[in-house]
Amino acid sequence: MINRRTFFSQFSVAAAAGAVCAAAAPFQTPAPAAASDRPNVVMIYADDVGYGDLSCYGAYNVKTPNLDRLARAGIRFTDAHSSAATCTPSRYSLLTGEYSFRLSKARVLPGDAPLLIEPGRQTLASIFRDKGYRTAAIGKWHLGLGNGKIDWNAEIKPGPLELGFDECFLIPATGDRVPCVYVENHKVAALDPADPITVSYEGPVEDGGLTGKANPEKLKLHPSHGHDMTIVNGVSRIGYMKGGKSALWVDEDIADTITNRAAAFIDRNARSQQPFFLYFATHDIHVPRLPHPRFDRASTMGPRGNAIAELDWSVGQIMAALRKHGLERNTMVVFSSDNGPVVDDGYKDDAVAKLFNHKPAGPYRGGKYSSFEAGTRVPLIVRWPARIKGGAVSSALVGQTDFLKSFAALLDVKVDAKSAPDGANILPALLGDSKVGRSHLVEQAGGLTLRAGKWKYIEPNKGAKMSVPTNTELGNDPQPQLYDLAADPGEKKNMAAAMPGKLQEMQTVLKRIRDGEFVP
To answer: Residue 478 maps to which CATH number?
Structure first.
């Protein structure tokens, strides 16, 4: 039987060791490269990282030196947004340029859901591939796979390869959902055919092994709410599975495994002088938070803080891989997050007890799942030394839904009439040529919200006001809410009654957008 820990790491141990040393040095390009109209592009998409979670955004209980250097050499955005306050909808919008509220199925998916994006559709990846780039998706996917019930022991398609990616190495859904295996291109990596995988989200599978609910003594990390089904690597998950022992991941090794894969992709394309687009979607800092033991004392905040440090290490490894080949100058590196922060998202990992004075959302209200500003206001850093002057801070209103059209403009690719219906070309803002981004931006949580300059409108919603398990204010209220974020970033003073004209204006614009009109 294959040793899964050895299989997933042996190909890049030597490379990773060199990169660790390299990452400790400042980002420098040994041989300056000429500016090109076709930069390499690396998009690092983190998970559950809030506006206040990085030291370049004000955190001081955890240090993120690699991300800080990225920001110093590029542009740090202060009003950037994912399209939704949860992961699957945001990832859908990022790749398609379409607001996820337009597709009812674009919600947090189970681990066995079919592919959410229609194959053949123009995507962020396909515009690069059509321009001659080698494209890869490495890390968390969570956009579904296949076109029905998945047989994890056979070919798994359609998936990223049918959406514009040349290759992929995926966490199919999330770390807290089964199946706890990697999918490489169309197959589960390192699967022993004699030990087939069975997955169910409807109920336990026969002879499926232990669950956290029935066997808490077998756990090394206990759930705080939910997450009490099949145990894998001493952690109980959402969903049930059995089999595939040789293919199961080790949580503590996930960052190393996917980061080394990403660095190897850069190495291969650098040697072949092939321009590349890398979509590197980290697992950190999503639950279960089990960073590698070498990060045990990386922060004062326990596993959540240590996972932030591990994320920063991954960024350092990517930059080291670029620096190794003299690619830093003409590679555009984009870092952002899929939604705002959450502290207790299902496991007892001391995240609440060791939060101390750290503010994951910075000055904003809410967090993951919330219509308040912290649900979607996320870090965004863009670095491209050949084109972008470093050390800049931009307050432009920008959204991830705009990435497809913006990169299409960079590559001079025509976006077809049915693609990216809600995206705008904000390339001048991303490059620092303009201080203006979008005039209007829609965000999704329990309902819809509209940003327009300093104003924010939250439509009436009869849902719960609090997520009790996560201790998150959800922003739901049966009355309309209107906030002046310039004067009231914490959204404490509802101006709806005092400013009926502005309220009606915002309501009208949101209705136009909901009805399908493009409002930039």
So the answer is: 3.30.1120.10
